[in-house]
Amino acid sequence: MNVLFIGYGRMGSAIGEAWLATGLVDTISAIDPHQPPGLRAALYEDMQALTQQTFELIVIAVKPDKVCSVAASLPDIICKGAVVISVAAGITTQALDHALSRRCPVIRAMPNTPVLVKAGCTALYTDSRLDDARRALVSRLFDSVGRSYWLEHESLLDAVTAISGSGPAYYHLFSEALVEAGVLLGLTPELALDLATQTAFGAACQQVREDANIVDLRTAVTSPKGTTAAAIAVFEQDQALRRLIEAATQAAHRRSQELSTGR
To answer: Where is the Pyrroline-5-carboxylate reductase dimerisation domain (predicted)?
Structure first.
């Protein structure tokens, strides 16, 4: 399989290099004048040298404000027979179809930053008629950097953005606060950081087990009248933590909707 990446920055290169390493694709041509040599992908400064090639997939991984202009500039020879995948937030399939003049099928992908360590979540949506083989292929590609999920409605991408797209920052913020709390309790910053991050890693490993139940995992640590129970009681007082999380994700959801409508 021959794949073209337009934009090969942190996110694009993490995905593309993983695809090459697993052997899921044969070659990747990447247009990104800012990337240094040393990557597996063949790097190009522009599209001039690629106009005689054909590609099965074209991944657009540039800033959202450049996605439609990039899509519109794709030569017909490069578009022919390809599926276009956009990883940009807020750019709808309707906008992409219009920019491409409906020359090829479009998929929106919403990966999160843990794809950089092959532990990401990627939501996928298309309003095009893709055959089962191509749909399964795209799933395998994004499963190679974590897990992929097909959505039935494009509007659900705004909810995905609020939960998994922005979600890593929520966990990082909680860890940051936990480190600061540890320092206030007398731990060195280095030890507080190690304890907080290793605890986050261990808890995540438990949560992703196939038979895991998050409520059961929490209650297993929460002995009646114990230290954990004392802390949980503070979090749960007037459902303070749950209300804060609901308000935060609603705010992220609204902002994602605004970006999709150009506001």
So the answer is: 154-259
**Homologous superfamily (CATH) for 2-154:** NAD(P)-binding Rossmann-like Domain (3.40.50.720)
85 is annotated as contributing to ligand binding? no
pLDDT digits (tens, 9 = 90+) for 188-214: 999 999 999 999 999 999 999 999 999
The answer to the question of whether 110 is labelled as a binding residue is: no
Q: Answer yes or no: is 6 a known binding residue.
A: yes
Whether 10 has a binding-site annotation, put simply, is yes
177 is in an annotated binding site: no
Could you report the per-residue pLDDT of 116-141, keeping only the tens digit for each? 999 999 999 998 888 899 999 999 99
Q: Does 225 appear as a known binding residue?
A: no
Q: Does 47 appear as a known binding residue?
A: no
**166-261 CATH, one of 1.10.3720.10, 3.40.50.720, 3.40.50.620, 1.10.3730.10:** 1.10.3730.10
Q: Are 125 and 108 in contact (CB under 8 A)?
A: yes
pTM: 0.92
Q: For residues 149 and 120, is the Cβ–Cβ distance under 8 A?
A: no
